[in-house]
Amino acid sequence: MAEEKLPLIVTIDGPAGAGKSTIARLVAEKIGLPYLDTGAIYRAIAWQLNEMNVGPEESPEMLKLLADIKISFGLDTISVNGRDVTKEIRTPETDKIVSAYAALKCVRDALLSVQRAQAVKGLVADGRDMGTVVFPEAELKVFLTASAEERAKRRWKERVARGEKAVYDEILEQVNKRDDYDMHRTVAPLCPAQGSIILDSTEMTVDQVVDAIASLAAEYRKPSPR
Asked: What residue segments make up the domains of the chain, in order of their start?
């Protein structure tokens, strides 16, 4: 009889453009755990509120709207109140607004229980406060980073591959601004969680990063007692 393994929570935090979503998705597939795309959740919330002309400011109106916004996942898709917004949330326009909405306490509080509820069978989650706020009890916490220049280059390549117009210098400026904003915001600032393993992927391939995290996960994922 195959040994049953206990649920494992793996968090992968880090700055914008570090490749967290790609890495987390591949790690989850490699080690057989569900993947929680928290970045997509925040992007969807930001996109929806912006579409409704609700600015990124705490207000009673926003609290009511947040309670009515329903987010659902499909196979490689995400929907808000039944509308597929997979493409809309990955545009430069959404890149520019998501930080301001994600920094709001009411937004983060509204999504906290939603995210934690997904961890019953273990998961791999990426974001900026997965190990510090959402899953502080996670067995394996990774802080994935890379130089600002490398992260900007990766974003530039992604946009060009999608057929979008992209200027490297502008993307690098956006990355640096996002770093400064995320690290100094009042609510859940970006920083390595206590006990996290810092992994610099500047000189690493995607496969090398995935293998490194999967190897770490294997050390934490122990068979359950009989």
From this structure: 9-215
**Residues 114, 87: Cα–Cα separation, whole Å:** 22
* pTM as predicted: 0.79
CA torsion angle 29 144 87 188 (round to 10) = 120
Q: What is the separation of C-alpha 119 from the centre of its chain, rounded to a whole number of angstroms? A: 15
The Cα 210–Cα 26 span in angstroms is 7
pLDDT digit of tens for each residue in the chain (226 aa)?
A: 445 566 899 999 999 889 998 999 999 999 999 999 888 889 999 999 999 999 999 988 898 999 899 888 777 789 999 999 999 999 989 988 998 999 899 999 988 887 898 898 899 999 889 999 999 999 999 999 999 999 999 999 999 998 999 999 999 999 999 999 889 988 888 999 999 999 999 999 999 999 999 999 998 875 555 4
Domain 9-215 has CATH 3.40.1160.10: no
What are the residues whose beta carbons fall under 8 Å from the beta carbon of 8, sequence distance 6 or more?
A: 31, 33, 122, 139, 140, 217, 220, 221
CB atoms < 10 A from the CB of 166, how many? 17
Separation CA 130–CA 158 (nearest Å): 24
Task: Give the pair of three-digit tokens for residue 177.
Answer: 């601004």
Question: Do 39 and 190 form a contact (C-beta atoms < 8 A)?
Answer: no
